[in-house]
Amino acid sequence: SDVVERAWQLGAKFDGWQDIRSYDAWMQAFAEQGLDPEWYARRERKIDEVLPWEHINAGISKEFLTLDYMNSLKGAVVDDCREHCFSCGILGLFKHDRRNVPDGAWGCPALGRGKQRQPVDITPVPLYVNPDMAPELAPQYGPRVPQRAGLHEPARS
Fold first, then answer.
1. Is the pLDDT of residue 10 over 90?
2. Rounded CA gap, 129 and 143, in Å?
């Protein structure tokens, strides 16, 4: 936290905006604290190390990510999960939402033990491109779509 505060004091603000990122301020802040930023950014990490972003719940378990990482080191790939659930943990995150819709609506395995897998229904969804905002892209996607994401198209003036 001392590095972050010092970088801020040196002018590091809005660093998510690449055009005004203050790289030199960050390097100076690390140097003043006697820390090597390369150690934080590029070192090899242990498989069980707590990572800086682990407080963010993406719905996928660390166990699944670890197994997936180990498989990737072997060059192994997994099939598309629409055909077979690999128990990554994401379904549990949405279990309350899934219980309130008809079976099969999510196109993923049923909840609970002993349930049969639900069929996958892949429905093409038309892509809407506003020709006023991206006229060069509009011809690629065909005619205008009257509705998108359940909302009526805004009236044109």
1. yes
2. 9
